[in-house]
Amino acid sequence: MGAMDLSVQVLNIPSKTTQEDLITFFSYCGSVDEIQLKRSNNGNQTQEALVTFRQPYARQTALLLNDATISGNRVRVLPGEISETSPISNGSLKGKHGFIHSPQSVLKTIASKGYEAMNKAKELAVWGLTEN
Known about the structure:
The protein is of the alpha+beta class. Helix content is about 30%, strand content about 25%. It has helices at about 20-25, 55-65, 105-110, 115-125; strands at about 5-15, 30-40, 45-55, 70, 75, 75-80. β4 (about 70) and β5 (about 75) form a beta hairpin. The protein starts with 6 loop residues before the first strand and ends in a 5-residue tail after the last helix.
């Protein structure tokens, strides 16, 4: 399985959100391998990210977080690669938990996206299976 198969695109991220915030947010899905954080080209004060995971189940679980809220913004979590945008620095704000919701709210969002999808992600995690 290629590296692109383990990545999700995240849109509408608040501008003050750091890479550390995103690592914390997505760590409940599984191991985060890399995050590329960039400014959006849409004129908003938002960012986009390409989040790459180490395990296929982590990517599948992260996709269940589509429409989750980070610092008041509903983010889009989609499969695939982000478009070319201008990179930004890691920012000067270092808040670890101030920009994201608690692990409990992340889990509630995952649960609301479907009991069946969550069971499938858990099964993949336990058995190390992947979809073909």
